[in-house]
C-alpha cells in the first residue's frame, strides 16, 4: 500500500489569533484529519528561530502521514469532508492567500539504526 505525506503550509489569520490558531490545529483539526481513512499520523512544525524565511512563506507546516491505495483520493476525501462541513474550521486560520498544500509519495524509506 503506498505511503505518502500531505504537507500544508499555513499562518494564523493575524498575530493576535496565533494562540487560537495553534489550539485549533493541535486539538481539533489535526485529530479530525488523522481520524479520516488513509491518514495515519500528524505533526506540526514552526520555522526555527533565525531560519531564513523567503517572503510570503508561511511560518507553520503541518505534515499528515498517509497510507492508502490511492493517495490522491485520500486527499480528495479530506477536501470533501471540509467542504461538507464535517470538519471544524476556524477563522483563526489565514485563508488569503490560501494555504499551500502538497502531496508527496514515498520514494525511499529508511529508518535509523
What does this protein look like?
The protein is α+β, with helices and mostly antiparallel strands and 113 residues long. It has one domain: Alpha-Beta Plaits (2-Layer Sandwich), CATH 3.30.70.100. The chain is built from two helices and four strands; from the N terminus they run E-H-E-E-H-E. The protein has a four-stranded antiparallel sheet, covered by helices on one side. The protein is globular. The mean pLDDT is 95.
What is the topology?
Elements (H helix, E strand, L loop, with lengths): L2 E8 L7 H17 L4 E8 L13 E8 L3 H13 L16 E6 L8
Please give the domain count: 1
Query: In CATH, what is the class?
Result: Alpha Beta
CA radius of gyration: 15 Å
State the shape.
globular
Number of helices: 2
What's the β-strand tally? 4
Amino acid at each position: 500500500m503506498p505511503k505518502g505525506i500531505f504537507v500544508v503550509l499555513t499562518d494564523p489569520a493575524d498575530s493576535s489569533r496565533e494562540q487560537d490558531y495553534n489550539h485549533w490545529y493541535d486539538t481539533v483539526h489535526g485529530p479530525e484529519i488523522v481520524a479520516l481513512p488513509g491518514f495515519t499520523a500528524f505533526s506540526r512544525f514552526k520555522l526555527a528561530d533565525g531560519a531564513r524565511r523567503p517572503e510570503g512563506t508561511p511560518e507553520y507546516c503541518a505534515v499528515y502521514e498517509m497510507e492508502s491505495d490511492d493517495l490522491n483520493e485520500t486527499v480528495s476525501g479530506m477536501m470533501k469532508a471540509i467542504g461538507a462541513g464535517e470538519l471544524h474550521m476556524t477563522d483563526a486560520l489565514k485563508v488569503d492567500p490560501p494555504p499551500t498544500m502538497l502531496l508527496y509519495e514515498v520514494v525511499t524509506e529508511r529508518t535509523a539504526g
